[in-house]
Amino acid sequence: MHQNLAGDKTLEKLEINENLITDFYLSTTEIETLETSKTTFFKTKYSDCMELYADIETVAKYFKSHRSWFDRCAHPMKVEALGENGYDLLVGKFGSFGYQVEVRIGLELVPPDSAGRYKIINIKVPNYTSPGYEIKFQSEMRLVELPTDKFCNQKEIQELGLPPIITGAKWNLDLTVGIKFPKFIQKMPSTLIKKTGNNLLLKIVRQVSRNLSYKTQIDFHTTYNLPLPKQRKRSWGTTAISR
């Protein structure tokens, strides 16, 4: 098998950091106040591109068979299948100002339309009501052809036998999270709550995206016995805007 995949140490660095939230929360309190609390909304837009060193047809075939790889690539998130194209994802616990929530969301990976657009949308998780939060998740992805020499030098292309054209999975995410905070947090300045919440939301999105993209790259190239050039340092997330 002719591969140049990143080692385990690199992969470990890209795992979702389970200690991410230790600087942001202590323990959940005043849950009984949530029913009368107003909802505070946090929003972020995020986009990225994942390079896959194969033709579009092969990449499309891989994405179509997401049942065979999505759960292991999403680890350490806990995943359960819902219907034909849906998933119940337990993302983890996150919080701020001494308040935390365990984030769980249902998502459907909608098959591509006639224009080749893949979408991911919210779906209801059976027998589950989120505790004091709501999520609106809208994502769209397209497969595009990219010149290999944009990412690799000629020496790498020749040594690894890379094709002149590869596939980029370009996607955009529009995410809104509404949280009903307990009264002790509502007493804080709204600007502080907004800034802290938006920054934390963006940090979570970046980390989850980086982890899922990297593991999917590894899995795809391993599945099809394809070489994956050494990944160069880059700024993950070509666009990341919180508001």
State the order of secondary-structure elements, H for helix, E for strand.
HEHHEEEEEHEHHE
Distance N terminus to C terminus?
A: 46 Å
**Structural domain count:** 1
Tell me about the largest β-sheet.
8 strands, antiparallel
What percentage of residues falls in helices of 4 or more residues?
25-40%
Biggest sheet: strands side by side, in what order? 2-3-4-5-6-7-1-8
Overall average pLDDT: 82
Please report the total strand number as a whole number.
8
Q: How many whole angstroms does the radius of gyration measure?
A: 20 Å
CATH architecture: 2-Layer Sandwich
Query: Quaternary state, please?
Result: single chain
Percent strand equals: 25-35%
CATH class: Alpha Beta
- General shape: elongated
Structural class: alpha+beta
Number of DSSP helical runs: 6
Spans of 5+ residues with little confidence (pLDDT < 50)? 1-35, 235-242
User: Per CATH, what is the topology?
Assistant: Alpha-D-Glucose-1,6-Bisphosphate, Chain A, domain 4
Instruction: Provide the CATH superfamily.
Output: START domain
Can you walk through the features of this model?
- The chain has a single domain, classed as START domain (Alpha-D-Glucose-1,6-Bisphosphate, Chain A, domain 4, 2-Layer Sandwich).
- The protein has 6 helices and 8 strands.
- The protein has an 8-stranded antiparallel sheet.
- Strand 4 and strand 5 form a beta hairpin.
- The chain starts with 7 loop residues before the first helix and ends with a strand.
